[in-house]
Specification:
The structure holds 2 protein chains of 2 kinds. Chain A is of the alpha+beta class. Chain A has 4 domains: about 100 residues, Alpha-Beta Complex (Sulfite Reductase Hemoprotein, domain 2); about 150 residues, 2-Layer Sandwich (Sulfite Reductase Hemoprotein, domain 1); about 90 residues, Alpha-Beta Complex (Sulfite Reductase Hemoprotein, domain 2), CATH 3.90.480.20; about 140 residues, Sulfite Reductase Hemoprotein, domain 1. Chain A is built from 18 helices and 20 strands. Chain A has a 5-stranded antiparallel beta sheet. Chain A has a 5-stranded antiparallel beta sheet with strand order 3-14-15-12-11. Chain B has a 5-stranded antiparallel beta sheet with strand order 3-2-1-4-5. In chain B, β2 and β3 form a beta hairpin. The N and C termini of chain B lie far apart (about 30 Å). Classes of the chains: A alpha+beta, B alpha+beta. At the A-B interface, α15 of A face α2 of B.
Chain lengths: ~575, ~110
Amino acid sequence: MNIAVTPPRSNAPRAAMYYYDTFDRDFVNERVAQFRDQVQRRVSGALTEEEFRPHRLMNGLYLQLHAYMLRIAIPYGTLASNQMRQLAMIADRWDRGYGHFTTRQNLQFNWPKLADVPDILQALAEVEMHAIQTSGNCIRNVTADHFSGAAADEIEDPRPTAELIRQWSTAHPEYCYLPRKFKVAVTGSSNDRAAVLLHDIGLRIVRNEAGEIGYSVIAGGGLGRTPMVGKVVRDFLPREDLLAYLAAILSVYNRYGRRDNKYKARIKILVHETGLEEIKADIEAEFAALDRSGTNADPEEFARIAAYFAPPEFDAAAGTSIFEAEKARNPEFARFASTNLATHKAKGYTIVTVSTKPVGGVPGDVTSAQMRVLADAADLYSSGELRISHEQNVILPHVRLDDVFALWQLLQTAGLATANAGLITDIIACPGMDYCSLATARAIPIAQDISKVFADPERQKLIGKLGIKISGCINACGHHHIAAIGILGLEKSGRESYQITLGGDPTFSASIGERLGPGLEAHEVPQVIEHLVEIYLAERQGDEAFIDTYRRIGQAKFKPALEREVEDGSHL
Amino acid sequence: MAKFKHPQILIANHLLDGEVLFMGKAGWLRDHRAAVVATSEAEAEALLALGKAELAANKVVDAYLVDIAISPDGHPEPIHYREKLRTLGPSVRLDLGKQATNTEFGDI
């Protein structure tokens, strides 16, 4: 099969990321060939849907409301420019000219034809990508801080750890048929941007008193219908014991985790039903009994992987004079600079968040033309690297401050210069019932309506950082449980109904949002959000964040936000 | 089979392209407006049995019955908003799905 590959720019920089060796390449190609054969057998009728379904899911292929959907893994959210161009090519050739970035740092195509999927997977393999571990009861694509390798507050880049776990877990026979799906997240920073307390296992890279690097290990977090904050099961785990300790946790989960009820089969249920001390003892006993040397990775292997992620050479003389001058001259650029930049570890550099949330847009949707502009932007200004955040934005991790103005101008040409990163219109929304077969209500139109209400950039600036997250069902792909303001779409008497939750927090001070009151009609949601924001602005002290105001004054003060005018002019 | 409350049509996805299909008089259609309507429990059972046979024949996937009401212009329209969306496409992308082509859909 001859698959077109989008050529890299001749002067494209080589992104600092993991590159396949022969083993990886052979493995992925073999999987594509296997799936091609499985599709052929399905089309010929040799495989029934019941027989074929596990195979397609293991290759990221779902059946959704209107068509098949292919979910592509973007390991720990890291993407090279040539990979982004290949995604654009796939979008144009086999899909409908766009893709959707998800809250798991992945990308979904919403309209592939079954017979084309093997060719799509082959095209992905050509640029070292695949759709493995994006579905099924396995260890899913490992997620990580989207500012990895760039953030000023980073102790260590978490991606080598994430890559090690990916290599260890991919096709691991013991973990292909777990009681349920299993999600791992890693952060290497003192500020959590990977929601490590809300994953089956969260890893926080820390230093001990001796200055050695290791992991604080968290288990039993998760969202979905039973949201739970994870528990620290090990304060400090030496790096060399990582895989053995993960194996111990998974063995305990495999042995004691419930398989009688899929809704109680996640490790969070086991951890919370068993109790922290007992589960820690179980894990430690398993860990002690394990053949650690046979399970752990050779430190040289970790070093080999880590070498791929060596940061680009930063120019010690990188200045800020152009950046400062353009900010002073151009208020619109100054607004972008004040919202969409994060502090880089290298002097004269910054991290740029490219928002996929223009006012009225579909959160996470990016056209093929925009993908190509993002790839060009990465090559020109960010060492060929991109990241996908769980907030459904695209990150350019290594940009000289003096290049930001030129980058901003380029982004403007593609409608990608929305200055709202972290603000109230930077809304996370799952695909909801516009696409998803599991959804009970639409999520995207709610995000669109709210963003229109808060479109005024001055008002957004006044409100400051405030996260709204919307899920179209209790599976919580839109992370509504951990939003300052969460919105959950349900069905009530044959109509869409939306519950509001307040007080969620995805960081190291994690908390699950609390339900404010009865469900709302879709058209009522923006008005209620406005009232909530008005109460917050009236009550906040100084530049206090919404979550801090909420924790200080309590939910009762926000209840009046549910009072709203109904069609006959009366109030509810 | 659930208790028969409303007239029903048979809905499924095309095996090859995943598109939503509706059972018509002479086979699967891409347009729900010409779908065969079951107006009794016996007719619904027969329609569902046909759906199972089509599944077994590997022509479609995920076949099931959908409650409908007859619109003023005489066409069947799903009662539930989920199934209504399936006759149209994503409400946030009117340029995609069945709603994007305002023409009669042919048989397949």
